[in-house]
Design goal:
2 copies of one chain form a homodimer. Chain A is α+β, with helices and mostly antiparallel strands. Chain A has one domain: Alpha-Beta Plaits (2-Layer Sandwich). The first copy, chain A, has an 8-stranded antiparallel beta sheet with strand order 2-3-1-4-8-5-7-6. In chain A, strand 2 and strand 3 form a beta hairpin. In chain A, helix 2 runs antiparallel to helix 3. The longest helix of chain A has 16 residues. The termini of chain A are far apart. In chain A, 55% of the residues are buried. At the A-B interface, strand 1, strand 4, strand 5, helix 5 and strand 7 of A face strand 1, strand 4, strand 5, helix 5 and strand 7 of B.
């Protein structure tokens, strides 16, 4: 279903649509009343300036990086407020405007955004995080090297204090939900300064009964 | 927590550990009794020959492609049998043995597996699917082109009949859960014949009340 659609204000220059910036996310609440909890969290989150479309599999959010991340934080934290176990899957994507086509221009890289800054939620979260720099050609003086870029993002996560350890296929992060999401977003934005098409995935777990 | 660990039998040649083949997945059941449902599905699934480690965020499965996919199918289908709304996040990875290091050798590509074949489950599923060929250097006669590889996988999904449409940041698939998972696995394995490090993500939705 389409829950709401509120396109962002037009911009004089390149905006998030030209840059292909946005997210897909799915919030799962392990409770019989999951629908009421999720719809309540969506209704309370501020979607101003964002395009938000919910369908049976996930919710699409398009807008500037800072606003997209604030929205993800608010919906996931809102769903977790009642103390139920919540699992959220988050996909951040940049650099492919037009769904599956990527128009590479230097302007896209030069317009890479500031790293989002998120106020804390008071909700503790753990996450398995993956980052994908999708660079076919590189730029002068910068050959493609996806592991170099991933290592740099992991080093940044260590500086932020959310890094727990590397595991098979993912990096384990933990901290306030806002810190975890900000870490995922920071890697995505920082790699986006050198690589046009970058995606990042995180599975976020809150209030798992198996977490001591 | 570590639910169970049963390393696969040793192999004379390169095995899934040398090839860095495996999955992480998280099954969310939207019910108060989610823990009993998920633990029951895990207990009933055949983990023979697989390394399975469950922690608070996700479950790691390492083994041959066919067996890993059978296990994912069985656990997710098992969790859905009671008719509750289930959301499952699946990450397939190949080509990076040793967690975050990738040792590239021609043998790894030449040993790419057959496409997994999965018997149907009778459980209908929809999924948002993403595929990431992570090729820095290419091979003689084959330059890196991640969109070329993604398009080929999408064409294959159309042949399999699970393709619904392209959407922002993901491709929508639908069909029997086994068909959907087989489509995701097929793209991953087929791209893995030309690109060493390939990952694929899917968010699978079963019995969503918003799906007409």
């Amino acid at each position: 279903m389409t829950a709401s659609t509120s396109p962002s204000a037009p911009s004089a220059g390149l905006d998030h649509r030209d840059l292909g910036i946005g997210a897909r996310f799915t919030v799962a609440v392990m409770a019989d009343d999951y629908a009421g909890i999720i719809l309540g969290a969506l209704a309370e989150a501020d979607g101003a300036g964002l395009e938000v479309v919910t369908d049976p599999v996930s919710t699409l959010v398009r807008g500037p990086e800072q606003r997209v991340l604030e929205y993800l934080r608010d919906v996931i934290a809102g769903a977790a407020r009642g103390g139920r176990h919540v699992s959220a899957s988050v996909l951040l994507s940049r650099g492919c405007p037009g769904e599956v086509t990527c128009a590479t221009t230097p302007e896209l890289l030069d317009r890479a955004a500031e790293v989002p800054v998120l106020a804390p939620t008071g909700v503790h979260a753990a996450a398995h995080w993956s980052l994908y720099p999708l660079d076919d050609t590189g730029r002068p003086g910068r050959a493609p090297d996806h592991l170099r870029d991933i290592y740099a993002a992991i080093d940044h996560a260590k500086e932020l204090g959310t890094y727990v350890r590397g595991e098979h296929y993912a990096t384990l992060l933990a901290g306030d939900l806002a810190e975890v999401l900000a870490t995922v977003a920071a890697g995505w934005v920082l790699v986006g300064r050198g690589v046009q098409h970058v995606t990042s995935h995180a599975i976020v777990s809150i209030a798992s009964p198996t977490e001591a």
